[in-house]
């Protein structure tokens, strides 16, 4: 009985580019200039690890759904990019090590992409509009008041 063994080239698996989104929340006590610096540092990190940033948005300070480290507000940033597993690992490691980052979430949006698909994503991303999501209405202050 001849068994065919599949040989998987791990290097090629790690080099496959996929489409990702990452949202991270910075502590509201951090100055706006420092928040922008954190965002720029992470954008450079994505570019340095052979990633392509499709969109980088500053959603501003928003009320969070629940308190995190005694903060009711957070400064939200949104990144959409194409990169490898190493890009995501480096990005998330940078976010984990930064004490000013309250939370982050990365979502894989696609399976491996061809070069044509990546170029179409780059073209389309520049034309898209982005709106920061609203967790609650502005007039809903019950969570902040503590009066239930």
Q: Any idea what the CATH architecture is?
A: 2-Layer Sandwich
Give the mean pLDDT.
84
How are strands sequenced across the largest beta sheet?
2-3-1-4
Helix percent reads: 25-40%
* Count of distinct strands: 4
Q: What's the shape?
A: globular
User: Which residue ranges are poorly predicted, with pLDDT under 50 across at least 5 consecutive positions?
Assistant: 138-148
Structural class: alpha+beta
Name the CATH class.
Alpha Beta
CATH topology-level fold name: Alpha-Beta Plaits
Head-to-tail CA distance between termini: 71 Å
CATH superfamily: Ribosomal protein S6/Translation elongation factor EF1B
What's the number of domains?
1
Count of helical segments? 5
Q: Percent of residues in beta strands? A: 25-35%
Order of helices and strands: HEHEEHEHH
Helices and strands in order, then pairings?
Elements: H1 10-14, E1 18-26, H2 32-48, E2 52-68, E3 71-83, H3 85-97, E4 101-108, H4 115-127, H5 142-145
Antiparallel strand pairs: 1-3, 1-4, 2-3
Structure, explained:
This protein has a 4-stranded antiparallel β-sheet. The protein contains 5 helices and 4 strands; from the N terminus they run αβαββαβαα. With 148 residues, it is of the alpha+beta class. It has a single domain, classed as Alpha-Beta Plaits. It is globular and about 50 Å long. The C terminus is likely disordered. 35% of the residues lie in helices and 32% in strands. Strand 2 and strand 3 form a beta hairpin.
